Amino acid sequence: xxxxxxxxxxxxxxxxxxxxxxxxxxxxxxxxxxxxxxxxxxxxxxxxxxxxxxxxxxxxxxxxxxxxxxxxxxxxxxxxxxxxxxxxxxxxxxxxxxxxxxxxxxxxxxxxxxxxxxxxxxxxxxxxxxxxxxxxxxxxxxxxxxxxxxxxxxxxxxxxxxxxxxxxxxxxxxxxxxxxxxxxxxxxxxxxxxxxxxxxxxxxxxxxxxxxxxxxxxxxxxxxxxxxxxxxxxxxxxxxxxxxxxxxxxxxxxxxxxxxxxxxxxxxxxxxxxxxxxxxxxxxxxxxxxxxxxxxxxxxxxxxxxxxxxxxxxxxxxxxxxxxxxxxxxxxxxxxxxxxxxxxxxxxxxxx
Length: 352
Hints:
By secondary structure, the chain is an alpha+beta fold. Among the domains are: 40-92, no CATH class; 147-168 and 192-314, Ribonuclease H-like superfamily/Ribonuclease H (Nucleotidyltransferase, domain 5, 2-Layer Sandwich), CATH 3.30.420.10. The protein has twelve helices and ten strands. The protein has a five-stranded mixed sheet, sandwiched between helices. Residues 29-38 have low confidence and may be disordered.
């Protein structure tokens, strides 16, 4: 009973979230932490291999004519017969040129799932805060690959929400020039209502935990900007539930959808409503404005996808962590650190 009492006392000292995660891991017969046990080489080859099945394509030219060429620091080395380049399994992954081992990256992804701040994540993983920021953006950039493949079907609720355009960040050492006067801390915008000082984020959700969302334009949307986000992302024949914005009728017609409009001043139309997407917006703003204290507009799409994955998808914590780790390690990511900081200040799918 002594060991049982000690274990029970340790369990009771955990937070409610930590207790839930522990019980979930026991029920699923999974370890709470990965502890670096992830078979990196097998994971990458599973998702990214040539027709031979046991080697990756060349990360430099994309050729599948690749041969094995010894080992480098314990990892299989390859040579491309087309361009002659040498590479290893991680040359096309997020671990390229990283000085940290995969277990540190896994620990960082767990911190992300827990929505820890950059400082707290950096301290836990033994990295600097700037490195933690770069890692977060690289991982979220990989999640965009999942977002690109999502197609919604069934009853699809769609609406837009707005965020003040933010140029948050230290620009004193860059060539960036502020297009307007800086807002004082705590001030939303200098213009009341919807204006081009606000980024319109167009979102669509289903009740089974699937969602899409991204910045469509500045200010009020129109059929063209909405179409840049929604066209081809909702399966033909689905029920398209929106508010009274007339532009959605054009989107429904273009994509072959049954359009249900919620009249202005009402909350339902028969059995249909847009309460799920409204709740989605509420949690998105809580994540961006509260948990992360606001983010620069250039990175906002990444956090929308993060919200889709962490808050809205219907998987357990451990399942989401497994998906995030496997997808991050297996998705080709060669974006350099300096390329992240020079992304467009306002990422629009169409030219402004």
